[in-house]
Design goal:
Hxn_phspho_trans; 5 helices; nucleotide-binding; glycosyltransferase; 6-stranded mixed beta sheet; alpha/beta; 9 strands; 25% helix; hypoxanthine phosphoribosyltransferase activity; 182 residues; Rossmann fold
């Protein structure tokens, strides 16, 4: 991955830090849902590596589903317009749903997803986010389980992308500005 690494200004969170954060969140979920069977709802595509990592460390029954929502539309910041590209496949009515997010940035996507799931009649909805960027929040919303708090920087890796690239990095890093300002 030498070619990708040259585009990274600096590594903010190592693979080991991500795994440790995922284990911590998994144990919190396990404790909070010990008498339930939650639905882990992965937001595609970015949260896929995070969900896979968290699931490995949960020792209770869970079921999984996927939803694909977009708000960036290829840019470097949220457009404020949320679009559902792929809806949940299962009936989530009366289920306890945990949204698995890669990052909570402006909060718009998460807020929209929570409202949408409530409209579908879920019993409860919480969110586990690998990365939280509280200083960029523009709506009142908070993840219930947070892996890592990040400063305001353009992050890529471990699912986070720029124009669908860099998701495969095993760490999270800051993308060099010249890459996305060409």
């Amino acid at each position: 991955m030498e070619n990708l690494k040259q585009d990274i200004e600096k590594i903010l969170f190592s693979h080991e830090e991500i795994v440790n954060a995922s284990k911590r969140i998994a144990k919190q979920i396990e404790e909070d849902y010990k008498d339930k069977e939650p639905v882990l709802l992965c937001t595609l595509k970015g949260a896929l590596p995070f969900m896979a990592e968290v699931m490995k460390h949960i020792d209770i029954h869970v079921v999984t589903d996927f939803i694909d929502v977009s708000s960036y539309h290829g840019g470097t910041c949220s457009s404020g317009t949320i679009k559902i590209n792929k809806d949940v496949a299962m009936d989530v009515k009366d289920k306890d749903v945990i949204i698995i997010e890669d990052i909570v940035d402006t909060g718009r996507t998460l807020k929209c997803l929570i409202e949408y799931l409530k409209e579908l009649g879920v019993n409860s909805v919480t969110c586990a986010s690998l990365v939280d960027k509280p200083e960029t929040r523009v709506v009142e919303v908070q993840a219930d389980y947070i892996g890592i708090e990040s400063p305001n920087a353009f992050l890529v890796g471990f699912g986070l992308d720029y124009e669908e690239k860099y998701r495969n990095l095993p760490y999270i890093g800051v993308l060099k500005k010249e890459i996305y300002t060409k």
